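hi! just following up on the protien thing from before. the input was this:
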Amino acid sequence: MPEPIDYNLFKTWIQQNFATENIKEHNGRIRLNSIFCEDIKYRLYCNPSIGYFKCMKSGVKGTLYELVMKVEKCSLDEAIDSIGGEHTLRYYESKLDEYLNPKINNIKKIENNKLDFPPNSFLIRNLSETNHFRIKAENYLKNRKLQTKGLLICIGGEYSNRIIIPYYNRNGDLVYWNGRDLGNSNLRYRGPNSILGAKKEEVVWIEYFPPPKTRIYITEGEFDAMALNECGLHAAAFGGASFSEKQFEMLKGYDLTLSFDADKAGEAGLMKLCDATKKHGFNNMSYVRPPNKYKDWNEMLKDLDKELVYFYIKKTEKEHQFLDDWNILKLKIFKM
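and the predicted 3d structure came back as:
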C-alpha cells in the first residue's frame, strides 16, 4: 500500500531530478511533465499525502517509491533512502538511533557562527551495527578502502543518505562540511545551505594539521586525500581544481606536493596551482599524478595495495625546480 511521504523531502528530491520548467505545485500535489509519454501540460500527478503518482495521459500509476526507482534506476531500499517514509521500519529505526544518540560527542562547533551539521546527522560509528544507513556507509567506504573515523551519515531530511565530511580549522572548530550522496542524485556533493561558517573555496580538508615543514600532498577531492592518508602520507584537499588566497594561507609553513587528478581538469589546475604557489613563496615544491590508468588516487588505492601506491608516489614524485617551463612541457612527464 502507498504510504504518506514528507512533502518537503519529496519536493527536494523532485527539484534535484527534474528541471524547474517541468515542475508545478498545486493544492498539496506536485505536477510534472510526464516521463511516461510526450507531455508539456504537467500530466504526471504526485501526491505525497498518500504516496502515490498517476500519469493522466498514459495511465501509468504507482507509489512514489516506484517513481524514484524508475527515475534513478535504483532499488526499493535506495528509493526509501531518497524520499523516506513516516511509517516504515526504517523510519522507526532511524528515530530510535536519533533518540539513543541525541548529541554528536567530541564534535566541536564554532561558537560565534554556530555552524552545525545537517539535522539527523550522526557519527557513523555511533549508530547501531544493524542500522541500514551505517551498513550502507560502511560498505561504501570499505569499497574505497577508507575508514569511517570522523565521518557522519545523515539519516533523514534533505541531506538524507549522504556521508557528511567535516572540515575543521587548527583549533578543531567546525568551519565547513561536504555531503557525499550515496545514491544516484545528480547533485553528488552538497554543502551547507546556511551562510554561516566559511565558503568552500576558503577551506581545506585535512585530517589534522601536522608540525611545520611537514610535506603535505594537495589533492582535489576529500576521498583522494583520505586515500593518501591511508598510504601513510599527509594529504589535504582543496575540494576541486580551483584554489584561493585563504587556502594558501592555511598551508603556509608546509612543503607541498601538488597531486591533482590524471584528467585534463587536473592538468589545467595543476599548472595554475604551480604558478600560484611560486608567487606565494612556497619552497621545496614537488608534484605527482596518478598514472593514466586511474583518474584519481582513490581509484588507484581501490585497485592496488596501499604500499604500492606509496611506492609509486615516492618513485615518480618530481621536484618542482626540475621543470624549466610548465607551459611548454605540458606535464608530459605524467603520461605513463
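The first strand starts at residue 23 and ends at 26.
The chain has eleven helices and 16 strands.
cheers
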